[in-house]
Design brief:
The protein is mostly helical. The protein is built from 9 helices and no strands.
Length: 356
């Protein structure tokens, strides 16, 4: 039994992602704004900014397509996918779907490139074997991206066959089992290699127990994205192998699961930045707690009040500070030496006359 996805469900998912994704990315960049720029951070930043631009473009195309389908359904007074398909501008529809498939492929591999950028700054401190593994994974990721794009462009060549209205000439690449299987396989294998490489590198680093738990959680979120890839292929495979399956359902299955996979992968990508924010707040609270505990007051923070820490310490020890004392005005090491004082006179006990 196939899971049917309605136009409203797809529109809701893409609309939520259209709002949340820019917030996650911009918040991540704001959190890391004080980090010193490196070649690794530059790769990651370029990848994620390109991801944001393509995601907004792709989301706009999908939302527009959902609106067109809704308008056709209202105009025809039906919810049947076959009837709605007849009310669409098919050439424009096929061009938009072809563009969407290219966008989602680019989005998935841009996230992979951004993940690889995380480990570029530690490449020099890795062992030769780990460094070779990292280089091989980078080359493999670039190769799978080019192969996937090449298949999408050339499988139904010339390219205009993807939106041709002639049934004898038409060839829609995402509607073929060959392209769908190849893309899903390369996507899953690449994700598996990146995740395995990350776990191997992390296990070789000296980290606290809390950091290891956080990184394992991020890896678990990344594995959820891989599960979305498998579910997407299963649903699309069922749709493509069933001749009675509506064409619009195939398009919605592809778009729905691809959007869900991209959004989950982005959460896993942005999680380390939010972990940095939590760590900063924890360290700030710890530093404030330690600074106030040394005063014995629990409420005084230096710089917030009219008296200094030194004055508080002397006050609570029943001492007074002489404002003319030169030692209290500056660094004692920079003060001139005190002049030598003559020794005090000897104390002579008075002679008691009655003792005789």
């Amino acid at each position: 039994m196939n899971l049917l996805i309605g136009n409203d469900s797809l529109l809701a998912l893409v609309s939520v992602g259209y709002i949340i994704v820019p917030v996650l990315i911009l918040a991540r960049q704001w959190i890391l704004r004080h980090h010193a720029p490196t070649s690794a951070s530059l790769i990651t930043t370029i990848s994620i900014i390109l991801f944001l631009v393509l995601h907004c473009t792709c989301g706009g195309i999908v939302i527009a397509e959902c609106i067109f389908e809704e308008q056709a359904a209202k105009r025809l007074g039906t919810r049947d996918d076959e009837e709605i398909l007849r009310g669409l501008d098919m050439e424009g529809h096929l061009k938009r779907i072809f563009s969407t498939s290219l966008h989602y492929t680019s989005l998935l591999w841009l996230l992979k490139a951004a993940f690889l950028g995380y480990f570029a700054h530690v490449r020099d401190i890795l062992s030769p074997r780990a460094r070779t593994m990292y280089t091989c994974v980078c080359i493999f990721t670039m190769t799978t991206f080019l192969v996937t794009l090449a298949f999408q462009f050339s499988y139904c060549g010339p390219i205009e066959r993807n939106w041709s209205l002639d049934p004898a000439y038409q060839c829609i690449h995402f509607h073929t089992l060959m392209v769908s299987t190849l893309q899903a396989t390369l996507n899953f294998v690449t994700d598996f290699m990146i995740l395995s490489m990350a776990l191997i590198i992390i296990s070789s680093m000296v980290l606290s127990h809390r950091d290891r738990i956080a990184l394992r959680f991020i890896a678990a979120v990344g594995s959820v994205s891989m599960m979305m890839c498998v579910l997407r292929f299963i649903e699309v495979y069922r749709a493509l192998t069933n001749p009675k399956y509506p064409y619009l359902q195939v398009v919605r299955q592809l778009t729905f699961w691809a959007a869900l996979e991209v959004d989950v992968a982005l959460v896993a990508f942005c999680a380390p930045a939010y972990k940095v924010l939590v760590t900063r707040r924890r360290e700030l609270k710890a530093s404030l707690r330690s600074s106030t505990s040394t005063l014995g007051l629990g409420h005084h923070i230096k710089g917030y009040g009219e008296r200094s820490d030194l004055e508080y310490q002397y006050q609570y020890q029943d001492y007074t500070i002489d404002p003319t004392d030169r030692m209290a005005e500056g660094d004692p090491e920079n003060q001139p030496p005190l002049p030598l004082q003559p020794p005090p006179p000897a104390v002579v006990c008075p002679y008691r006359r009655d003792s005789a």
